[in-house]
């Protein structure tokens, strides 16, 4: 893996950063631009349905990019693991952040699917309650973690 990174570092870093742009940028766009507009829909069932459809679209879009981020991170971390203690600490911090983001993504995905089932069963209020946590807490959490990971990544590239 070290050899692959050494020979294709620009491409591996590009894939990694592009994946982060799609994942973090997608979450920011949905949270800041889309969800506030959806919240203006008066009919509760329509509002919940649109929100869940949008979230499903985001989750479907970012899933392959999460895999690309993980794969490219593996190449980069393997190539840099023998570096100084400071770099190792940053790599570990970034790995922990990525793991937390991935677990949160999985939790959101499951919660969204559960909300969708409730909506299709006609349990609109239950679906709305279950789904509300996504734009209110879970997506912002991943945005924050993603920005922290981005900052650490920039720091690592400068070391």
Brief summary:
The chain has 159 residues and is an all-alpha fold. The chain has helices at 2-7, 9-38, 44-80, 85-120, 124-158.
If you had to describe this structure to a student in words, what would you say it looks like?
- The chain is built from 5 helices and no strands.
- The chain has 159 residues and is mainly α.
- The protein is elongated, with a radius of gyration of 18 Å.
- The two termini are 20 Å apart.
The biggest sheet, with number of strands, parallel, antiparallel or mixed sense and barrel status, is: none
Low-confidence segments, given as residue ranges, are: none
SSE order, as H and E?
A: HHHHH
Average of per-residue pLDDT values: 93
Radius of gyration: 18 Å
- Specify the oligomeric state: single chain
Distance between the termini: 20 Å
Which descriptor suits the 3D outline?
A: elongated
Number of helices: 5
Beta-strand residue percentage: under 5%
The helix content, as a percent range, equals: over 70%
Structurally, how many domains make up the residues? Answer: 1
- Structural class of the helix and strand makeup? mainly alpha
List how many beta strands DSSP finds.
Answer: 0
